[in-house]
Specification:
- By secondary structure, the chain is an alpha+beta fold.
- The protein has one domain.
- The chain has 2 helices and 2 strands.
- It has a two-stranded antiparallel ribbon with strand order 1-2.
- The longest helix has 9 residues.
- It starts with 25 loop residues before the first strand and ends with a helix.
Length: 78
Amino acid sequence: MTKKGCGFNGGTCHSIINECSGCDRAKPFQSGVFCLSVPDPKVKWRRGSCNLATHIKAAVREEGPKLNPLKASKRAAR
């Protein structure tokens, strides 16, 4: 969605859904609140979270050091 309008699907963009609330890419226009990056936000949320969402932080997993499986099996055998 731009100031000139939408160029998606014959000039009609879809308004944001509940999951998009709080995203920096969602901007209010006269006809509603639209995403600046995605013309149909429902499609981006179909298989989980949107990869362009700025309000969602990815969980960081901390793992120990990578071990060589061959050496680990030899150590376990002792």
